[in-house]
Design a protein that fits this description.
Protein name: Outer membrane protein beta-barrel domain-containing protein
Organism: termite gut metagenome
Structural class: mainly beta
Strand content: over 45%
Pfam families: OMP_b-brl
Order of helices and strands: HEEEEEEEEEEEEEEE
Mean pLDDT: 82
CATH class: Mainly Beta
Low-confidence stretches: 14-18
Shape: elongated
Number of helices: 1
CATH topology: Porin
CATH architecture: Beta Barrel
Keywords: Signal
Largest sheet: 10 strands, antiparallel
Number of domains: 1
Distance between the termini: 47 Å
């Protein structure tokens, strides 16, 4: 009986100790969107790469003993595509939520891997005109109001406050609809993201 009581006391103590050691940090995150040529069912090669940026507040929650945690951000984000040499940017609110696993490298640094969903709310979703090269080329693009994607990335945290990461954003829903005189087709925009953050 005493052994059972002792085991229960130890289990309860551990369950109390782990949450006490959990860390919650708030911070600011910013970086660059490197938008690749999107996947599309359109028969065109006139869609090129483009760049944008993102910035906003974030929260980071972690349990150092087991290395598991999550982060979430509320970002103003610019991304888009280059059509017939004309760049059309999306401006919106991006909300990524990532599950993280961290591995400590001593007292000063740790590395982490992160995966999770990301929602993008387009603040400027009206149809954009594209100057066509010929009568058969694309003439406009209609970006979706809402996009859902999936993130996968890695990064490093230094001195408990500085964080750098690289992230690949995989589209789940369509990003936009291409409109030409002959047809309509959809695109899915794939994005590499390079970020820096400071956690208080």
């Amino acid at each position: 009986m005493k052994k059972i009581v002792s085991i229960l006391v130890i289990a309860v103590s551990m369950s109390i100790a782990i949450p006490v050691q959990a860390q919650i940090q708030f911070g600011v995150k910013g970086g660059v969107n490197l938008v690749g040529a999107p996947s599309t069912d359109a028969n065109t090669t006139d869609i090129k790469r483009s760049t944008g940026f993102f910035i906003g507040p974030m929260i980071d929650f972690s349990i150092p003993i087991i290395g598991i945690g999550f982060d979430a951000s509320l970002l103003y984000s610019q991304k888009g595509n280059k059509f017939n040499e004309k760049t059309i940017l999306q401006q919106g609110i991006e909300i990524p939520v990532n599950l993280k696993y961290s591995l400590g490298l001593g007292d000063f640094a740790s590395v982490f891997a992160a995966v999770g969903p990301s929602a993008f709310i387009n603040l400027d979703s009206e149809i954009k005109s594209i100057v066509p090269k010929s009568a058969s080329d694309l003439n406009s693009v209609d970006y979706k109001v809402f996009e859902l994607s999936f993130n996968a990335g890695v990064g490093v945290k230094l001195l408990g406050h500085f964080q750098a990461g690289v992230n690949y954003n995989i589209p789940v829903t369509n990003s936009a609809q291409l409109i030409s005189k002959a047809s309509r087709s959809s695109i899915k925009t794939k994005t590499w993201q390079v970020s820096l953050a400071y956690l208080f």
